[in-house]
Amino acid sequence: MSSSSLHRLPTPAARLDAVLADLATRFAATAAAHDADGSFPHDNFALLHQYGLIAQIVPLAHGGGGAGLAEARRIISAVAGGDPATALVLAMTYLQHRAVSRADSHWPAAARDAVLRSAVEQGALINALRVEPELGSPARGGLPGTVATRVGDRWRLRGHKLYTTGIPALRWLAVWARTHEPEPRIGLFLVPKPDAQTPGIRVIESWNHMGLRASGSHETVLEDVWIPLGNAVDLRPPEAWAPAGASQADLDANTDQQAWMVTLLGSLYDAVARAGFGWIRQFVQERAPGSLGKPLATLPRVQESIGEMAALLRTNAVLLDDAAGRTDAGAPPSVSDGGLLKFTVTSNAIRVVELALQLSGNHGLSRNNPLERHYRDVLCSRIHTPQNDAILTAAGRAALGL
């Protein structure tokens, strides 16, 4: 689709909200089917591009929407309310666009411009490929097994990545790898993926997860993938990537990037919980067992549980709105506070859906209703970096002055 055919979104928030409400309804209509067979929702991304939403945080200077975190949060929340797998892929693209667009970004100008221009013109998606079978999550440390070897004026990449979310539709892969040098350096290598048959890129369709089944988070194998030298991004010695070796500018960038990550992921899983909350409210208002003779909603115990869910979701809204506003104002929460935000919001979201299941009983566990899918999806929040053990250990050490 050409950029001229896009429905450019007017500035007023009400117009964006109307578009998002319509898209969320359309996405929700197909979410169960995509979940059931693990199929990737390509049509959803065509619609997002049609309204310019894939490029919504691309800077205005590059033709994008120039949105900040608060607006990105609104978009991810709405999309996740319809189909959280679609929202996850979009959130990953937003995070990469943010990293690429920062004024202090280490991205080469040509690579940066190609990524941002393709997002505007083609709705191109991008994600980072970091996790590996042997390494696990890079957040836990260690050298990546994926290797980039310089051969003349190109890099050759070989490696195996896990959980490459969105791979059926990604246009760009930001591959975390080490160089084949006497003293290896680590960094990102931008790999173009024009279509499903890109030479050297082999997708193993192994994603058969309990939740977010439509996210296309398959394995990706890089077999002699060739890219220009200019597609290497910020190569450094391993020790320079550790916090102790980072400059103040790098620390500031990391704080900003983490604020975006925890706010967008928190918004996604909060939206899943809100979908579950909406379902259980309707259920208890309509369900009137013969033994009771009136709707479940009239019972004080049910009212108390609904009130607890409302309190948890209200807490989430306040925390997420505050983090987004502070970040847009140039004062993002610290990395440790961002971790606690993620822990609190996602724990609250899981608790909301668990309470809904307790109220609904067998009805909530039936695959004929969406609540069991919301539960499977919301549990995935525990897997995203930073993970709960790392968050709480860091918080505990800080509280103990260690």
UniProtKB/TrEMBL annotation:
Q: Which UniProt keywords apply?
A: FAD, Flavoprotein
Any single GO molecular-function term of the entry would be:
flavin adenine dinucleotide binding
Domain Acyl-CoA dehydrogenase/oxidase N-terminal residues, every copy: 23-92
Tell me which cofactor or cofactors this protein depends on.
Answer: FAD
Q: Where is the Acyl-CoA dehydrogenase/oxidase C-terminal domain?
A: 272-383
Entries under InterPro entries matching the protein: Acyl-CoA_Oxase/DH_mid-dom, Acyl-CoA_Oxase/DH_mid-dom_sf, AcylCo_DH-like_C, AcylCo_DH/oxidase_C, AcylCoA_DH/ox_N, AcylCoA_DH/ox_N_sf, AcylCoA_DH/oxidase_NM_dom_sf, Mito_Isobutyryl-CoADH
- Name of a matching Pfam family: Acyl-CoA_dh_N
UniProt key word Flavoprotein: yes
User: Gene3D superfamilies, per this entry?
Assistant: Acyl-CoA dehydrogenase/oxidase, N-terminal domain, Butyryl-CoA Dehydrogenase, subunit A, domain 2, Butyryl-CoA Dehydrogenase, subunit A, domain 3
* UniProt key word Flavoprotein: yes
Task: Give every Acyl-CoA oxidase/dehydrogenase middle domain span.
Answer: 132-225
Belongs to which family? Belongs to the acyl-CoA dehydrogenase family.
The name on file for this protein is Alkylation response protein AidB-like acyl-CoA dehydrogenase
Upper taxonomic lineage: Bacteria, Pseudomonadati, Pseudomonadota, Betaproteobacteria, Burkholderiales
